[in-house]
Amino acid sequence: MSEVTGTIFDIKRFAVHDGPGIRTTVFFKGCPLRCAWCHNPESMKIQRQIVFFENKCIGCGECFKRCPNGAVIATPEGRKYYRDKCKLCGTCVEYCYAEATVMQGKIVTVEEVVEEVKKDMPFYKNSNGGMTISGGEPTLQPEFCSAIFEACQKEGMHTALDTSGHVKLETLKEILKHVDLILYDIKHLDPAIHKEYTGVSNELILSNLREINKLGIPIEIRMPTIPGINDTESNLLALCNLVDELRSIERIRLLPYHRLGEGKYQRLDMDYRLKGLETPKKERMEEIVNFIKANLKRDIPVSSG
Ligand code: SF4
Ligand code: SF4
Protein backbone atom coordinates (compact mmCIF):
# COMPACT_ATOMS: atom_id res chain seq x y z
CA MET A 1 0.00 0.00 0.00
CA SER A 2 1.11 3.60 -0.62
CA GLU A 3 3.64 5.00 1.86
CA VAL A 4 2.14 8.49 1.64
CA THR A 5 0.81 10.07 4.84
CA GLY A 6 -1.75 12.81 5.40
CA THR A 7 -3.39 14.89 8.11
CA ILE A 8 -6.94 14.13 9.18
CA PHE A 9 -8.99 15.53 12.05
CA ASP A 10 -11.65 12.86 12.45
CA ILE A 11 -13.03 9.54 11.26
CA LYS A 12 -16.78 9.23 11.77
CA ARG A 13 -18.36 5.79 11.63
CA PHE A 14 -22.07 5.18 10.92
CA ALA A 15 -22.46 8.41 8.94
CA VAL A 16 -25.79 8.55 7.10
CA HIS A 17 -25.68 11.95 5.38
CA ASP A 18 -22.46 11.64 3.37
CA GLY A 19 -23.71 9.50 0.50
CA PRO A 20 -25.95 6.40 0.28
CA GLY A 21 -26.32 3.83 3.07
CA ILE A 22 -24.20 3.53 6.17
CA ARG A 23 -20.75 5.03 5.66
CA THR A 24 -17.49 5.90 7.33
CA THR A 25 -16.42 9.47 6.67
CA VAL A 26 -12.77 10.48 6.86
CA PHE A 27 -12.28 14.20 7.50
CA PHE A 28 -9.12 15.70 6.00
CA LYS A 29 -7.54 18.74 7.60
CA GLY A 30 -6.83 21.85 5.54
CA CYS A 31 -9.08 23.95 3.31
CA PRO A 32 -8.48 26.82 0.84
CA LEU A 33 -11.90 28.35 1.63
CA ARG A 34 -12.89 30.33 4.71
CA CYS A 35 -16.68 29.99 4.76
CA ALA A 36 -18.18 32.31 7.36
CA TRP A 37 -20.63 29.57 8.46
CA CYS A 38 -18.09 26.71 8.66
CA HIS A 39 -18.95 24.48 11.64
CA ASN A 40 -15.56 22.75 11.52
CA PRO A 41 -13.06 25.62 11.91
CA GLU A 42 -10.51 23.05 13.11
CA SER A 43 -10.51 21.76 9.52
CA MET A 44 -9.29 25.03 7.98
CA LYS A 45 -5.55 24.83 8.67
CA ILE A 46 -3.68 21.79 7.41
CA GLN A 47 -1.29 22.00 10.38
CA ARG A 48 -2.24 20.37 13.65
CA GLN A 49 -3.58 22.75 16.32
CA ILE A 50 -3.82 22.86 20.10
CA VAL A 51 -7.35 23.39 21.43
CA PHE A 52 -8.19 24.26 25.04
CA PHE A 53 -11.50 23.35 26.72
CA GLU A 54 -11.69 25.73 29.66
CA ASN A 55 -14.64 23.91 31.24
CA LYS A 56 -12.58 20.72 31.59
CA CYS A 57 -9.46 22.32 33.09
CA ILE A 58 -8.83 21.28 36.73
CA GLY A 59 -6.00 23.79 37.19
CA CYS A 60 -3.32 21.17 37.90
CA GLY A 61 -0.69 23.27 36.11
CA GLU A 62 0.95 20.34 34.31
CA CYS A 63 0.73 22.08 30.93
CA PHE A 64 2.70 25.18 31.88
CA LYS A 65 5.15 23.25 34.08
CA ARG A 66 5.95 20.85 31.23
CA CYS A 67 5.89 23.09 28.15
CA PRO A 68 9.51 23.34 26.91
CA ASN A 69 8.81 26.46 24.86
CA GLY A 70 7.02 28.80 27.24
CA ALA A 71 3.94 28.59 25.05
CA VAL A 72 1.62 27.94 28.02
CA ILE A 73 2.13 30.07 31.10
CA ALA A 74 0.33 30.74 34.37
CA THR A 75 -0.99 34.29 34.78
CA PRO A 76 -3.10 35.85 37.55
CA GLU A 77 -6.05 35.53 35.13
CA GLY A 78 -5.34 31.83 34.59
CA ARG A 79 -3.66 29.70 31.98
CA LYS A 80 -2.51 31.57 28.86
CA TYR A 81 -1.51 29.91 25.58
CA TYR A 82 0.66 31.56 22.92
CA ARG A 83 -0.01 29.92 19.57
CA ASP A 84 2.99 31.64 17.94
CA LYS A 85 5.44 30.07 20.44
CA CYS A 86 3.93 26.59 20.31
CA LYS A 87 6.01 23.95 18.46
CA LEU A 88 3.19 21.36 18.59
CA CYS A 89 5.39 18.92 20.50
CA GLY A 90 2.30 17.49 22.24
CA THR A 91 3.79 17.43 25.76
CA CYS A 92 0.95 19.47 27.27
CA VAL A 93 -1.60 17.16 25.68
CA GLU A 94 0.17 14.09 26.99
CA TYR A 95 0.18 15.41 30.58
CA CYS A 96 -3.30 16.92 30.60
CA TYR A 97 -5.14 14.07 32.29
CA ALA A 98 -8.35 16.11 32.33
CA GLU A 99 -8.25 16.18 28.51
CA ALA A 100 -8.73 19.94 28.60
CA THR A 101 -5.86 20.43 26.16
CA VAL A 102 -6.18 18.39 22.99
CA MET A 103 -4.38 18.21 19.67
CA GLN A 104 -6.60 18.72 16.64
CA GLY A 105 -5.28 16.78 13.69
CA LYS A 106 -3.39 13.55 13.34
CA ILE A 107 -0.81 12.43 10.78
CA VAL A 108 -1.74 8.97 9.53
CA THR A 109 -0.81 6.51 6.79
CA VAL A 110 -3.10 5.31 4.01
CA GLU A 111 -3.04 1.85 5.55
CA GLU A 112 -4.16 3.14 8.97
CA VAL A 113 -7.13 4.90 7.40
CA VAL A 114 -8.13 1.93 5.24
CA GLU A 115 -7.88 -0.50 8.19
CA GLU A 116 -10.19 1.75 10.22
CA VAL A 117 -12.66 2.14 7.37
CA LYS A 118 -12.69 -1.63 6.69
CA LYS A 119 -14.06 -2.33 10.18
CA ASP A 120 -17.63 -1.60 9.05
CA MET A 121 -17.60 -3.54 5.77
CA PRO A 122 -20.62 -5.70 6.76
CA PHE A 123 -22.69 -2.54 7.36
CA TYR A 124 -21.71 -1.10 3.97
CA LYS A 125 -22.73 -4.33 2.25
CA ASN A 126 -26.12 -4.51 3.99
CA SER A 127 -27.00 -0.85 3.39
CA ASN A 128 -25.35 -0.17 0.00
CA GLY A 129 -23.08 2.21 1.88
CA GLY A 130 -19.35 2.77 1.73
CA MET A 131 -16.74 5.35 2.59
CA THR A 132 -16.57 9.11 2.05
CA ILE A 133 -13.68 11.54 2.22
CA SER A 134 -14.68 14.99 3.40
CA GLY A 135 -12.97 17.85 5.17
CA GLY A 136 -11.68 20.45 5.14
CA GLU A 137 -10.94 20.05 1.48
CA PRO A 138 -9.72 16.53 0.59
CA THR A 139 -8.16 17.60 -2.72
CA LEU A 140 -5.61 19.70 -0.81
CA GLN A 141 -3.85 16.38 -0.08
CA PRO A 142 -4.30 14.80 -3.52
CA GLU A 143 -1.88 11.85 -3.34
CA PHE A 144 -3.14 10.79 0.08
CA CYS A 145 -6.74 11.15 -1.06
CA SER A 146 -6.23 9.17 -4.31
CA ALA A 147 -4.34 6.40 -2.54
CA ILE A 148 -7.12 5.90 0.03
CA PHE A 149 -9.83 5.84 -2.64
CA GLU A 150 -7.86 3.38 -4.77
CA ALA A 151 -7.25 1.05 -1.82
CA CYS A 152 -10.90 1.23 -0.70
CA GLN A 153 -12.20 0.47 -4.19
CA LYS A 154 -9.86 -2.54 -4.34
CA GLU A 155 -11.54 -3.75 -1.14
CA GLY A 156 -14.90 -3.49 -2.93
CA MET A 157 -16.14 -0.35 -1.19
CA HIS A 158 -18.32 2.36 -2.71
CA THR A 159 -16.36 5.63 -2.55
CA ALA A 160 -17.57 9.24 -2.35
CA LEU A 161 -15.66 12.52 -2.45
CA ASP A 162 -17.09 15.59 -0.71
CA THR A 163 -15.39 18.61 -2.28
CA SER A 164 -15.70 22.36 -2.65
CA GLY A 165 -14.28 21.96 -6.16
CA HIS A 166 -11.73 24.72 -5.55
CA VAL A 167 -8.78 22.82 -6.98
CA LYS A 168 -6.90 22.45 -10.28
CA LEU A 169 -9.01 20.47 -12.75
CA GLU A 170 -6.20 17.96 -13.48
CA THR A 171 -5.82 17.22 -9.76
CA LEU A 172 -9.54 16.72 -9.35
CA LYS A 173 -9.77 14.42 -12.38
CA GLU A 174 -6.88 12.29 -11.11
CA ILE A 175 -8.62 11.79 -7.75
CA LEU A 176 -11.95 11.01 -9.44
CA LYS A 177 -10.45 7.94 -11.15
CA HIS A 178 -11.36 6.00 -8.00
CA VAL A 179 -14.56 7.80 -6.97
CA ASP A 180 -18.11 6.42 -7.41
CA LEU A 181 -20.05 9.49 -6.23
CA ILE A 182 -19.20 13.19 -6.07
CA LEU A 183 -20.70 15.36 -3.33
CA TYR A 184 -20.12 18.83 -4.76
CA ASP A 185 -20.59 21.88 -2.55
CA ILE A 186 -22.16 24.97 -4.06
CA LYS A 187 -22.21 27.95 -1.70
CA HIS A 188 -23.38 30.78 -3.94
CA LEU A 189 -23.82 31.35 -7.67
CA ASP A 190 -22.71 34.99 -7.59
CA PRO A 191 -18.88 35.27 -7.75
CA ALA A 192 -18.65 38.48 -5.69
CA ILE A 193 -20.93 37.25 -2.89
CA HIS A 194 -19.14 33.90 -2.96
CA LYS A 195 -15.84 35.68 -2.44
CA GLU A 196 -17.23 37.85 0.34
CA TYR A 197 -18.35 34.86 2.41
CA THR A 198 -15.79 32.17 1.50
CA GLY A 199 -12.67 34.15 0.62
CA VAL A 200 -12.55 32.88 -2.99
CA SER A 201 -14.54 33.44 -6.18
CA ASN A 202 -16.72 30.60 -7.51
CA GLU A 203 -15.39 30.74 -11.09
CA LEU A 204 -12.98 27.80 -10.77
CA ILE A 205 -15.59 25.82 -8.80
CA LEU A 206 -18.27 26.25 -11.48
CA SER A 207 -15.94 25.61 -14.42
CA ASN A 208 -14.67 22.42 -12.72
CA LEU A 209 -18.25 21.30 -12.14
CA ARG A 210 -19.06 21.74 -15.83
CA GLU A 211 -15.96 19.71 -16.76
CA ILE A 212 -16.49 16.82 -14.34
CA ASN A 213 -20.14 16.66 -15.40
CA LYS A 214 -18.77 15.14 -18.64
CA LEU A 215 -17.17 12.19 -16.79
CA GLY A 216 -20.51 10.50 -16.11
CA ILE A 217 -19.87 10.04 -12.36
CA PRO A 218 -23.09 10.80 -10.41
CA ILE A 219 -23.00 14.18 -8.67
CA GLU A 220 -24.96 15.31 -5.62
CA ILE A 221 -25.06 19.08 -5.15
CA ARG A 222 -24.87 20.13 -1.52
CA MET A 223 -25.70 23.67 -0.55
CA PRO A 224 -25.31 24.93 3.00
CA THR A 225 -28.42 27.07 3.34
CA ILE A 226 -27.58 30.32 5.09
CA PRO A 227 -30.51 32.66 5.86
CA GLY A 228 -30.28 35.98 4.04
CA ILE A 229 -27.05 34.99 2.25
CA ASN A 230 -27.79 32.24 -0.27
CA ASP A 231 -31.50 31.43 0.24
CA THR A 232 -32.63 34.35 -1.94
CA GLU A 233 -34.96 33.71 -4.87
CA SER A 234 -32.34 34.85 -7.40
CA ASN A 235 -29.69 32.49 -6.02
CA LEU A 236 -32.08 29.53 -5.88
CA LEU A 237 -33.16 30.17 -9.49
CA ALA A 238 -29.51 30.32 -10.56
CA LEU A 239 -28.97 26.99 -8.81
CA CYS A 240 -31.94 25.47 -10.70
CA ASN A 241 -30.53 26.68 -14.04
CA LEU A 242 -27.15 25.14 -13.29
CA VAL A 243 -28.67 21.81 -12.28
CA ASP A 244 -30.88 21.73 -15.38
CA GLU A 245 -27.81 22.26 -17.54
CA LEU A 246 -25.62 19.51 -16.00
CA ARG A 247 -27.07 16.02 -16.46
CA SER A 248 -24.69 14.16 -14.12
CA ILE A 249 -26.30 15.97 -11.20
CA GLU A 250 -28.71 13.44 -9.74
CA ARG A 251 -29.68 15.05 -6.46
CA ILE A 252 -29.72 18.33 -4.51
CA ARG A 253 -29.28 18.26 -0.76
CA LEU A 254 -29.67 21.44 1.29
CA LEU A 255 -27.73 21.60 4.53
CA PRO A 256 -29.54 23.97 6.92
CA TYR A 257 -27.28 26.48 8.68
CA HIS A 258 -26.62 25.67 12.33
CA ARG A 259 -24.48 27.18 15.06
CA LEU A 260 -23.02 24.02 16.57
CA GLY A 261 -19.49 25.05 15.60
CA GLU A 262 -19.64 28.54 17.11
CA GLY A 263 -17.92 27.58 20.39
CA LYS A 264 -15.00 26.03 18.51
CA TYR A 265 -13.98 29.42 17.11
CA GLN A 266 -13.21 30.81 20.55
CA ARG A 267 -11.21 27.71 21.49
CA LEU A 268 -9.09 28.23 18.35
CA ASP A 269 -8.69 32.01 18.92
CA MET A 270 -10.75 32.72 15.80
CA ASP A 271 -13.59 35.16 15.14
CA TYR A 272 -17.06 33.90 14.22
CA ARG A 273 -18.57 36.23 11.62
CA LEU A 274 -22.21 35.13 11.76
CA LYS A 275 -22.85 35.74 15.47
CA GLY A 276 -26.58 35.94 16.19
CA LEU A 277 -27.74 34.41 12.89
CA GLU A 278 -30.64 32.05 13.56
CA THR A 279 -30.97 28.49 12.26
CA PRO A 280 -33.72 28.31 9.58
CA LYS A 281 -36.96 26.72 10.78
CA LYS A 282 -38.21 23.41 9.32
CA GLU A 283 -41.05 25.24 7.52
CA ARG A 284 -38.58 27.61 5.86
CA MET A 285 -36.44 24.71 4.65
CA GLU A 286 -39.57 23.00 3.24
CA GLU A 287 -40.45 26.23 1.46
CA ILE A 288 -36.98 26.37 -0.14
CA VAL A 289 -37.11 22.69 -1.17
CA ASN A 290 -40.54 23.24 -2.78
CA PHE A 291 -39.34 26.38 -4.55
CA ILE A 292 -36.41 24.49 -6.08
CA LYS A 293 -38.62 21.55 -7.12
CA ALA A 294 -41.10 23.94 -8.75
CA ASN A 295 -38.39 25.70 -10.75
CA LEU A 296 -36.32 22.70 -11.86
CA LYS A 297 -37.05 21.37 -15.33
CA ARG A 298 -35.79 17.92 -14.32
CA ASP A 299 -37.32 15.51 -11.83
CA ILE A 300 -34.53 14.75 -9.35
CA PRO A 301 -34.64 14.37 -5.55
CA VAL A 302 -34.33 17.62 -3.59
CA SER A 303 -34.07 17.33 0.18
CA SER A 304 -33.02 19.16 3.29
CA GLY A 305 -30.83 17.79 6.06
S1 SF4 B 1 2.34 21.48 22.20
FE1 SF4 B 1 4.39 21.60 23.17
S2 SF4 B 1 5.09 23.67 22.66
FE2 SF4 B 1 2.88 23.66 22.30
S3 SF4 B 1 1.99 24.39 24.20
FE3 SF4 B 1 2.02 22.16 24.30
S4 SF4 B 1 3.94 21.64 25.36
FE4 SF4 B 1 4.11 23.78 24.68
S1 SF4 C 1 -2.72 20.25 32.23
FE1 SF4 C 1 -4.84 20.38 31.50
S2 SF4 C 1 -6.08 20.39 33.37
FE2 SF4 C 1 -3.97 20.86 33.98
S3 SF4 C 1 -3.89 23.12 34.00
FE3 SF4 C 1 -3.19 22.43 31.99
S4 SF4 C 1 -5.06 22.47 30.71
FE4 SF4 C 1 -5.72 22.54 32.84
SS strand fraction: 15-25%
Mean pLDDT: 96
CATH H-level superfamily of the largest domain: Aldolase class I
Work out the radius of gyration: 21 Å
- The CATH architecture of the largest domain is Alpha-Beta Barrel
Task: Assign a percent range to the helix content.
Answer: 25-40%
Classify the secondary structure makeup into a structural class: alpha/beta
The description of the largest β-sheet is: 9 strands, mixed
Quaternary organisation: single chain
End-to-end C-alpha gap: 36 Å
N to C succession of SSEs: EEEHEEHEEHHEHEHEHHEHEHHE
Find the count of extended strands (DSSP E, 2+ residues).
13
Number of helices: 11
CATH class bucket of the largest domain: Alpha Beta
Question: What ligand molecules are bound, each kind once?
Answer: iron/sulfur cluster
Describe the structure.
- With 305 residues, this protein is of the alpha/beta class.
- The protein is built from 11 helices and 13 strands.
- Helices cover 32% and strands 23% of the residues.
- The chain has a 9-stranded mixed beta sheet.
- A hairpin with a 2-residue loop joins β4 and β5.
- 37% of the residues are buried.
- Bound molecules: iron/sulfur cluster (2 copies).
- Residues 57-63, 79, 95-96, 98, 100-101 line the site of one iron/sulfur cluster.
- One iron/sulfur cluster is lined by residues 50, 67, 69, 71-72, 86-92.
